[in-house]
Amino acid sequence: MTSDFSRRKFLILGSAAFSTSLLLKACTTPAGDEDAATTDDAGADDAAAGGGGGDTIKVGILHSRSGTMAISENTVVDAELLAIEEINAAGGVNGKMIEAIEEDGASDWPTFAEKAKKLIEEDQVAVVFGCWTSASRKAVLPVFEAADHMLWYPVQYEGQECSKNIFYTGAAPNQQIEPAVDWLLENKGDRFFLVGSDYVFPRTANQIITEQVKANGGEIVGEDYLPLGDTEVTPIIAKIQQELPDGGVIFNTLNGDSNVAFFKQLQGAGLGPDKYPVMSVSVAEEEVRVITPEYLTGHYAAWNYFQTVESPENEKWVSDFKAKYGDDRVTNDPMEAAYIMVYLWKQAAEKAGDAYDLEAVRAAAYGETFAAPGGTVTMNPNHHISKTVRIGEIRDDGMFEIVSATDAPVDPIPWNQYVPETKGFACDWSDPEKGGKYEEA
Asked: Among residues of the chain, what percentage have pLDDT more than 70?
């Protein structure tokens, strides 16, 4: 069932300079500090024992502040820092202030792993909020699992994963990709061309899309990839023209700067949204602002949150965000998922009684709810959250007209039910006999 929402005007003229009054620690490692060179086990034991100590709770923030992914990840950091500032202003977590220690993954996956290890072992943080791409998440996953530590991850992803050490607050495929395909099949056509960045998320997402389209009688006419950050999109556009000479659906899983070149050259080739509607799952309000609506109006995106959601919680959040960072700033889905994950972690840490008791925090997180800007969310025992699904059409003011929305939050399914290898599997970390992957009866 769909819901329509009225238009709302917001200024989208540029980005405000980053600023914050939070407690921040320098991100460089002191030279010659031999005590900092601990083993994985020792670092994990210190953190679990309350390595932060004192009157603060140390948390890590690990995102790309530079490189091709900075276009998306800088805004996520802003949202996380805003949540931390609000929590501190309200008294902190069990009376302790949050001390944010920020590191730059620099759009480089080995760097993400290196920085994650530093945050756990040297800084002894209670939790890390971080990553965007699945490549960065996959790079840090062994670090968190070896240390039995905790990452909260805020971005929609391809599923096919359910780690004890990660809480996922972005969409699983059944909360974004699959509803987008269903909507396209019903409203835009059944011939699809798939274009994406060349790493794990787009390739896995396209495997899911292929199985879903086939199961519903559609056809995948082409599939092509660009290295992450590559802007040489002309060959892909030529293939789209060849395979869809009379028009058709383009499903876009490009990330980062590649989207800028793709949409500009798509329009330059005369492939407009009237005959070649593009459905994106990594283009939100911030990317629209950077690419500019001139090249995007009439195309679509599937998310759980848009700035145009009408609710008291969203009105307040947008107002507070703009008050801090500038009236020309915009909010988007990954930012909202980042903002709410800090609050969900805070609630779990307070319920556990000790933010450094990671097992207690994990158990306390199950069932936690939060009145998010996009609607109430609930943390499930599979470490994913139930959330509303929305599809939006890009307007000429850079905002999204919401053309479809579920009536209630959709429960997450990490193991995909279209892919034969994972059909029938589920995840439940509240039951030791089930864990990360078990076959449902």
From this structure: 88
Q: How many other CB atoms are there within 10 angstroms of residue 139's CB atom? A: 20
Residue type (1 letter), 68: T
| 382 φ/ψ angles, rounded to the nearest 5 degrees | -90, 15
* Residues 333, 374: Cα–Cα separation, whole Å: 9
pTM of the model: 0.86
SS (H, E, C) 254-282: CCCCHHHHHHHHHHHCCCCCCCCCEEECC
Dist. CA 112–CA 130, nearest whole Å = 9
DSSP 18: P
Do 382 and 162 contact (CB within 8 A), yes or no?
A: yes
What's the pLDDT at 53? 55
Span 147-159, pLDDT tens digits: 999 999 999 999 9
The gap from C-alpha 308 to its chain's centroid, in whole angstroms, comes to 18
**Confidence band of 228 (pLDDT split at 50, 70, 90):** confident
Six token digits for residue 114:
């290196």
The strand pair at 127-130 and 56-63 is best described as parallel
Strand partners, 265: none
Tokens at residue 127, please? Answer: 């939790």
* pLDDT on residue 36: 33
Lookup: tokens for 52: 């932060």
Half-sphere exposure at residue 393, Cβ-oriented, CA atoms within 13 angstroms: 18
